[in-house]
């Protein structure tokens, strides 16, 4: 081949023919000068393949087309120059757009005027593959159109049968390839998910329908068992997850992800799922019902145990006995506060009947159909206060072998009576205040917040104001409890009630060992003169002991030889060797009236006869009738005396 000195342009008639042949080669070809690292010429096919203008290629270096491939380019060039011809598919020149081309190079050595040039043919491997496919298809066509059509019909029948099966299936079915992209979706899946098949096919389905857990938290695709099927090649069966519909609502599903293999290689997975929302809802309702049954059963067991305990420790009847002004005032206060829900603080000495007042408030309230739960705060160990009040869960502390309902939860809807509330530890008073203010609490060892509706009645024999000043009782809790204060008056300040109470205790079941016992006027006088530091509880014990020691129908009342000391201003008490107080005429009259009234009440207003009040008082019936008239007492009125 001849070239002119001004750019290797061919000269002469024969050269023109060679140039024309070079231009019309079907295979893209370059003429290269390896020593100068330049492209001498390129035929139009090469320009089309590489995407460059012919003039631009003539100005381009060979190495510029093979950036970062210089070692391979040098090896290939040396092989061509050494052996005369060589080929390779390791070189990937850059297209004008920057894309790397997959080509096969075939180079041949071309001497020219003392220089060694190289003729480089380039074959597009992708185009060659397409030609091979076309040739194979042409061979099938040559093998006979009838056979081809028969095979096509077989595949069409198989495809039609598969589509019929997929459409008839009641379960949702879809497939994914090894990249996690959807390959098909059956109509049942479309109906359950609300997505059309064309909206899902070709897209990563996890990010569309399986992106979040039931609580809305993110579900990473690398944790997805569906994708796990074509990663580890195992079948994954899952229950208790949700797919998300197109409208954003969840549907509870159970599904199986089965890997698909092609020649032993996992190429994807098929997923079969069903909507289990109704079944899950039914299961949740059943579990909730069973849990509620268990809760109610446990509550009833605890209430029964509590009531049995109350029966054992009950010492006084639930009625309030007495006709004194102090008792009448207390009853009026009970009547006022019972319909309300405000907290009540009952203060008074031990044994004055604070619990009876609490029971009277409860039984007169709208909560009387629910239990009155009593807590003796003085009897609870310090470390068990919180568990006793709020309950605990199993394992919350050593010895917590099962869940336990606290007193607040047990009193839900009813009344909680905190006796000796001043004994509650200071560190627990804040939690008690929270329950009273918000109605919320947590069991020990549990994070779940529970809500209760409790009417609180507190009782104390302490001066809580002083306790607040001394820092032993929270001021805010004191004001929360002391909404409606009631004072339980000591027995020495309502002496006119002593005969009624004594007669009541004498006739109660606990004083039954000996029948026919009666209080004499002397007994009543002795009882009324005593100061009763133990109040009503001490009176009950004295009467029971007197009934046990009774002989020949006469009570033996065991009291100190001298009346108890009377309170004096300043809180100090008189010494036991001081002389007893002298009663005035009016006091003696009131004492006699109370004694007669107690006898009439015990005999249901009967004056005469063996079981009448005269016999009980050991006086003549006519004498008793005369005294009753003088005191303004009538048997008919006596039947209503004595408030229960």
> Which regions contain 5 or more consecutive residues with pLDDT less than 50?
1-9, 311-318, 562-580, 640-644
Tell how many strands the DSSP assignment holds.
19
What is the general shape?
rod-shaped
Tell me the major beta sheet: 5 strands, antiparallel
Largest sheet: spatial strand order: 2-1-5-4-3
Give the mean pLDDT.
80
Helix share, percent: 40-55%
Architecture per CATH nomenclature, i.e. the level-2 architecture of the largest domain? 3-Layer(aba) Sandwich
Can you identify the CATH class of the largest domain?
Alpha Beta
- Determine the structural class based on helices, strands and strand pairing: alpha+beta
What does this structure look like?
The protein has 644 residues and is of the alpha+beta class. It folds into 4 domains: 118 residues, PAS domain (Beta-Lactamase); 112 residues, 2-Layer Sandwich (Beta-Lactamase), CATH 3.30.450.20; 174 residues, P-loop containing nucleotide triphosphate hydrolases (Rossmann fold); 132 residues, no CATH class. Strands 2-1-5-4-3 form a 5-stranded antiparallel beta sheet. Helix 19 crosses helix 21. The N terminus and C terminus are likely disordered.
Describe the structure in brief.
This protein has 644 residues and is of the alpha+beta class. The protein is 42% helix and 17% strand.
Task: Give the arrangement of secondary structure elements.
Elements: H1 12-23, E1 29-33, E2 38-42, H2 44-50, H3 54-58, H4 70-83, E3 85-88, E4 103-112, E5 115-124, H5 125-142, H6 145-168, E6 172-177, E7 182-185, H7 187-193, H8 197-200, H9 206-209, H10 225-232, E8 236-244, E9 250-262, E10 265-275, H11 277-313, H12 325-337, E11 344-347, H13 354-363, E12 372-376, H14 385-390, E13 391-392, E14 404-405, H15 407-410, E15 415-419, H16 426-438, E16 440-442, E17 449-451, E18 455-460, H17 464-469, H18 475-481, E19 484-487, H19 498-507, H20 521-529, H21 535-549, H22 585-602, H23 613-617, H24 621-631, H25 635-638
Parallel strand pairs: 11-18, 11-19, 12-15, 15-18
Antiparallel strand pairs: 1-2, 1-5, 3-4, 4-5, 6-7, 6-10, 8-9, 9-10, 13-14, 16-17
Helix pairs in contact: 19-21, 19-22, 20-22
